[in-house]
């Protein structure tokens, strides 16, 4: 019997059930985005589902820089960094990132995902170990799989479990990899303890700071800056798609290590380089990060207010302490229904279920930006209060039918 590769793609699929029930929440086409608000299906809603933490995607200075660079260099580089795709703008951007992170050098990739894949693949060889937090982003997991190294996962944020893995690998070269800010729960990696353990066992520490860079720390350099550990974290990765208002990624660290990665990271060597407009926009964002610290203070304050308000309404916001604020309900169907109710009340959020979070931790991922106002947060909380009351009625009706 001939087996068809496509047979697994045919109905019924789980997503068809949610589509048929009218609660499928993904791939929603936005008609317009205006930073803190967006237009969806003809309605204006508060955008509480964006990673635009500093609100720079619509900043006139950033847009103007991108336009000017595009007019000068064109819309793309039409080649990889290794060959014809390196511009002076790339080198300027790398120097600026390295300086902000307190590192000798930096390397820019085309996406944050490619950064994780390329850096880990380049650094870790056969018979070497990767020690990976179980809640790390998928790009770290996939980068670890792409390498020839052996992956050892430790329990989320658990220093005791991490040390047991380090102890077992004493005779190996080891790379400890963690998110700085965990993207679903908004909690921080325990970097002080991780730095001590890495030093004690001779391991190297790589922090993917996609959600911390630009937001945390006295300089806005991210999680290591927040803890005052810039010189103790070996490598810092980040992305442009959050605080740098574009798309791309970077790795910053010692010059010789960055040069090694530059010549071995397949995702950079064999991928077209970041366009000039994106580079110029990112450089302008760095200017703003350095000159306007009030932006990161404001977004942290707004998120704190929203988190406290949600808790007063009885919601579980988990361990969040950043602009990422989860609302944990723990059931996929319930999350999808609640997402629709919150949207009907005028707030766009992100529903996240397994494998994005562990089973039973299904949540709405809410996030805030510096261009939100106190009024936006009040409206956000009012919408959640109304949606919760409506959800309770749905739950009561369902229980009555099942009973």
Short structural description:
43% of the residues lie in helices and 16% in strands. A hairpin with a 2-residue loop joins strand 2 and strand 3 (43-47).
Describe what you observe in this structure.
The chain has 403 residues and is α/β, with parallel strands linked by helices. It folds into 2 domains: 16-47 and 293-402, Aspartate Aminotransferase, domain 1 (Alpha-Beta Complex); 60-291, Type I PLP-dependent aspartate aminotransferase-like (Major domain) (Aspartate Aminotransferase, domain 2, 3-Layer(aba) Sandwich). The termini are far apart. It has helices at residues 14-21, 60-73, 88-101, 112-123, 138-146, 159-168, 191-201, 223-227, 255-262, 266-269, 276-291, 294-312, 332-344, 374-402; strands at residues 30-33, 37-40, 43-47, 105-109, 129-133, 150-154, 174-179, 204-208, 235-239, 249-253, 324-328, 347-348, 350-352, 363-367. The relative contact order is 0.15. It is 43% helix and 16% strand. The chain is globular, with a radius of gyration of 22 Å. A hairpin with a 3-residue loop joins β1 (30-33) and β2 (37-40). The strands form 3 sheets. It has a 7-stranded mixed beta sheet, with helices on both faces. It has a 4-stranded mixed beta sheet with strand order 1-2-3-12. A 3-stranded antiparallel beta sheet has the order 11-14-13, covered by helices on one side.
């Amino acid at each position: 019997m001939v087996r068809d590769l496509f047979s697994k793609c045919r109905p019924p699929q789980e997503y068809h059930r949610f589509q048929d029930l009218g609660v499928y929440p993904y791939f929603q086409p936005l008609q317009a985005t205006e930073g803190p608000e967006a237009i969806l299906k003809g309605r204006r809603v508060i955008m509480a589902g964006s990673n635009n933490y500093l609100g720079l995607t619509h900043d006139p200075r950033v847009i103007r820089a991108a336009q000017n660079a595009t007019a000068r260099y064109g819309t793309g580089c039409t080649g990889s960094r290794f060959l014809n795709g390196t511009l002076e703008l790339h080198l300027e951007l790398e120097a600026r990132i390295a300086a902000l992170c307190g590192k000798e050098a930096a390397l820019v990739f085309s996406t944050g995902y490619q950064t994780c894949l390329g850096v880990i693949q380049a650094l870790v060889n056969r018979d070497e170990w990767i020690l990976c937090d179980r809640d790390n982003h998928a790009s770290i997991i996939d980068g670890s799989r792409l390498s020839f190294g052996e992956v050892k996962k430790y329990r989320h944020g658990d220093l005791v479990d991490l040390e047991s893995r380090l102890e077992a690998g004493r005779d190996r070269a080891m790379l400890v990899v963690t998110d700085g800010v965990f993207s679903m729960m908004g909690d921080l990696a325990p970097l002080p303890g991780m730095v001590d353990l890495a030093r004690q066992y001779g391991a190297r520490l790589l922090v993917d700071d996609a959600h911390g860079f630009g937001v945390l720390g006295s300089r806005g350099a991210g999680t290591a800056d927040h803890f005052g550990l810039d010189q103790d974290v070996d490598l810092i990765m980040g992305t442009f798609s959050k605080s740098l208002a574009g798309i791309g990624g970077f790795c910053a660290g010692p010059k010789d290590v960055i040069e090694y990665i530059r010549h071995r990271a397949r995702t950079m060597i064999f991928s077209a380089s970041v366009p000039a407009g994106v580079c110029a926009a990112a450089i302008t964002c760095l200017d703003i990060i350095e000159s306007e610290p009030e932006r990161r203070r404001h977004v942290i304050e707004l998120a704190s207010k929203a988190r406290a308000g949600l808790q007063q309404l009885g919601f579980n916001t988990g361990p969040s302490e950043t602009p990422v604020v989860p609302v944990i309900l723990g059931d996929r169907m319930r999350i999808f229904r609640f997402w629709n109710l919150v949207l009907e009340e005028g707030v766009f959020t992100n529903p996240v279920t397994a494998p994005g979070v562990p089973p039973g931790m299904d949540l709405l991922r809410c996030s805030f930006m510096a261009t939100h106002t106190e009024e936006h947060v009040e409206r956000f909380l009012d919408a959640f209060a109304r949606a919760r009351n409506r959800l309770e009625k749905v739950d009561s009706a369902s229980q009555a039918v099942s009973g």
